[in-house]
Design goal:
Radius of gyration: 39 Å
Mean pLDDT: 75
Number of strands: 7
Strand content: 5-15%
Number of domains: 2
Order of helices and strands: HHHHHHHHEHEEHEEHEE
Number of helices: 11
Low-confidence stretches: 437-441
């Protein structure tokens, strides 16, 4: 049964290509199934005919039909889909006409045209109205010709009433088998088609949601970029104009410091945009990461922050396994969170601190970044991961940092939790998968 299933799948998929739509796949599969079922029925009919009417030559008609149906599968294999449909239907029309005319009206073979006309209407949908008209006209014309010639065009007198009765039984058996198989494959294929269409609809719905999110982000992005890029430039240009008209070196130096501050703000903003862009378009690069070294490098890069030396930094790493992750992305995440913890410290506290704790297990890594800074007001917490959202104006920021953290974690299949009390401090909890990829081996 396993090998029969594999053979059936192989035949059913003949002619299907990756670029085909679900509806095209369904139509191609229908033709393959129709041809296979027709082959099985014709070969069975040949055997039954030889058993019931050993002297009859009808089996030659049936056998020729079966071989012709095999041709339809071959045509599908070579992407001649329309021709395959026409061959399958036309062979059935001619074989029915020949058999009905050979045996006569009483055998009832002409009733097969009802099935053939229905099959033509289903399979030859009027995409091409001329071809549809021709293919639907053929069985109707042949049925009319049978009645006009009184079923005597090829009629043989070799059949007795007993033989005709046997043929009636034979045709009844064939029609029952055909009806059962057609019903089975019709239901089966339509269930599959419905599932494919449902999956396609779900995918389109997801993509539509993503597109709406991207459009919303793009609108906010364009607005904020135009403002946040121009503001430092306009400030620097204004300070440059003041320095040109100023003779006092001390004043010029103060203007230069302000200009440096504006340019650093612009630099941070551009860096955030680059981080956002890289996360969007680059795939994950998993490798072993030395978390202690990475945190030390980030703290060293943040040493320019105001009051850096007065803030106590505590690092605790409990590693029970190597840490496998995307080093660039985890660096972006930690850099943003540590930078925020340092930037938004509470200057009124006697002992400000930033505490970084990591628990590295075989399957998961949990990183906690805790500070006793200014904290975040409760009503702002649901919005802090939105693009360009700033929960405070007490320090300069692009409003992209936490948004980039969330987007990057989503890309890494991680998650983030935040707890904060305004005036007391903030704690971020990161959950990251620790899985060594095959590419990293």
């Amino acid at each position: 049964m396993h090998y029969l299933g594999q053979l059936w799948t192989y035949i059913s998929t003949q002619g299907i290509k990756p670029e085909h739509t679900p509806l095209q796949v369904r139509d191609i599969t229908h033709v393959n199934h129709a041809a296979v079922v027709a082959c099985l029925i014709t070969f069975f009919a040949t055997f039954l005919n030889k058993l019931i009417l050993p002297q009859s030559q009808i089996y030659l008609v049936i056998l020729a039909s079966g071989l012709s149906y095999l041709l339809a599968i071959v045509l599908n294999r070579f992407q001649q889909y329309q021709i395959a449909k026409c061959v399958t239907i036309f062979v059935g029309d001619i074989a029915t006409f020949w058999a009905a005319s050979l045996i006569g009206y009483d055998a009832g073979i002409h009733h097969v045209y009802i099935v053939l006309i229905f099959a033509t209407m289903v399979n030859m949908k009027p995409y091409n109205s001329l071809l549809f008209f021709i293919m639907i006209s053929i069985p109707i014309a042949l049925l009319g010709l049978l009645f006009l010639t009184e079923f005597s065009l090829f009629k043989s007198n070799a059949f007795s009433q007993e033989q005709i009765k046997s043929i009636n039984i034979f045709m009844l058996i064939i029609n029952i088998i055909t009806a059962l198989l057609a019903t089975y494959f019709f239901v089966r294929d339509n269930d599959k088609s419905s599932q494919v269409l449902e999956n396609t609809a779900n995918e389109l719905s997801e993509k539509y949601g993503e597109l709406q999110k991207l459009n919303k982000e793009l609108d906010r992005f364009v607005y904020s970029v135009s403002h946040d890029l121009r503001a430092p430039i306009a400030s620097s240009l204004g300070l440059t104009a003041l320095m040109k008209s100023e003779a006092d070196l001390q004043t010029i130096y103060q203007y230069a410091q302000l200009q440096e501050k504006s340019l650093k703000k612009l630099d941070f903003f551009i860096k955030d945009i680059l981080d956002y862009s890289r996360n969007r378009r680059q795939e994950l690069e998993i490798k072993q990461v030395d978390l202690q070294r990475l945190i030390n490098e980030i703290l060293e890069m943040q040493s320019f922050q105001p009051h850096y030396e007065s803030i106590k930094k505590v690092i605790e790493i409990n590693a029970n396994a190597p840490f496998w992750t995307d080093e660039k992305r985890i660096s972006v995440i930690l850099n943003n969170l540590i930078s925020n913890a340092l930037r938004y410290h509470n200057p009124r506290r006697e002992k400000p601190f930033v505490q970084i704790n990591a628990q590295i297990a075989e399957k998961e890594v949990i990183i906690t970044i805790k500070d006793n800074g200014i904290g975040i007001q409760h009503e702002y917490l649901p919005k802090i991961f939105e693009m360009f959202y700033r929960a405070t104006d007490s320090a300069n920021g692009s409003g992209l940092g936490l948004y980039i953290v969330k987007e990057t974690l989503d890309k890494m299949q991680g998650k983030i939790e935040v707890q904060s009390t305004y005036g007391e401090g903030t704690t971020f909890l990161l959950h990251l998968p620790n899985t060594k990829s095959e590419s990293a081996e």
